[in-house]
Amino acid sequence: TGNLVFHLSLVLLLVGIAVGAFRGFKGTVLVVEGTGFSNTVASYDDINPGRRFHPSSLVPFTLQLQDFRATYAPDGKALTFDAQVTWGRTQATTPYDVRVNHPLAVGGAKTYLIGHGYAPFVRVRDRTGAVVLDQPVACLPQTPQFLSTCVIKVPDAAPQQLGFRGAFTPTTITQDGRVGSSFPGLVRPVLTLVGWAGDLGLDGGVPQSVYSLDTTALKPFDKGQAHALSEGQTWQLPGGGSLTYVGTREWATFQVTQDPGKRLALVAAVGIVGGLMLSLFVRRRRVWVRVRPGAPSTVEVGGLSRTDPERFQAEFAELVRRLRE
Q: Which of 42, 49, 95, 261 has a Cα at 20 to 30 A from 2?
């Protein structure tokens, strides 16, 4: 019985894995504090759908990141991560704390916290004085101390488009003329940028990453000299215009997964363990009894045990004694 349960459960496990691979979905999205997303395919930065996945099977819900908090030990080791969010089926009103190994479960979908970083809030004005960019810009961490790379694109600036590339350091230090970060927490934030003006190439029909800047058709400001800005400082751009580092927000990366085969796989896993325990702990013994008619009848008894033969000999002798009675 244990052997049969084990192998049937193994087949059931393969079926559960197949259902998850064909019907499952996994999507990743970066969310800055104060913004959110809806559980639709278009909202995700990266998706990994199953071969038979259909967008209509996504669980409808909306999530908004209200606040993200991380704590660190004095040596910079991460201690806690806490994303305070609100969520709802139609409107994000219900509060919830998404932490490591503490996902938000909505129907058959689970939302996990898998990463975080900083997003400096930047305000850019062009030569006419018009505000052409007023939003946080997500920077990607490159070191454990959260030295992060940043790219800012301003396609609506006049008369030329603007582009900036640089680094964000939450606890800024300077070594050999280069900026770095000595601690992942937000202690002395500095945004260091190099600026360009010209054509960003966004109208050429070739897709671009928001985290990279093509400077082929751009002319650098101040011969490519970097400018370091603390919170509240403004860089007056050559020829007019300005860039202000207003403040710092944080962002979190969420991964939403749907696996319709996980319950089937769980039942199969329990069956595999149960069948294996039966196979290992139940002693397999066989006994044959043959009666030959006659006066008197002759009774033959035989036995076989695959394990613990000495114990079986005593059991077999007791069985024969009872048959004699």
A: 261
105 beta partners: 110
Q: How many whole angstroms separate alpha carbon 26 and alpha carbon 259? A: 9
Measure the CA–CA gap between 189 and 194, rounded to whole angstroms. Answer: 17
What stretches in the chain show pLDDT beneath 50?
none
In three-state secondary structure terms, 222 is helix
Cβ atoms 190, 179 nearer than 8 A: yes
The amino acid occupying position 170 is P
**SS3 state at 155:** coil
CA distance 188 to 48: 38
Helices assigned H by DSSP within the chain? 2-23, 262-281, 309-324
* Token digits of residue 28: 């990743």
Check: CB of residue 136 under 8 Å from CB of residue 118: no
Give the tokens for residue 310.
């000495």
Query: Which phi and psi (to 5°) does residue 271 adopt?
Result: -65, -35
| Structure letter (DSSP) for residue 216 | T
pLDDT tens across 277-289, in order? 998 888 888 999 9
* CA–CA distance, 157 with 131 (Å, rounded to integer): 9
Look up residue 51 and give its amino acid.
R
Element at 139 (helix H, strand E): none
> Of 138, 204, 193, 208, nearest to 162 (Cα)?
193
Per the listing, tokens 């029909």 go with 205
| The two structure tokens encoding residue 190 | 């500095």
- Count of CB atoms within 10 A of residue 294's CB? 7
| pTM score | 0.80
Task: Give DSSP secondary structure letters for 299-319.
Answer: EEEEEEESS-HHHHHHHHHHH
User: pLDDT at position 218, please?
Assistant: 92
User: Letter for the amino acid at 194?
Assistant: V
| Predicted local confidence at residue 7, as pLDDT | 95
Main-chain dihedrals φ then ψ at residue 243, nearest 5 degrees = -130, 125
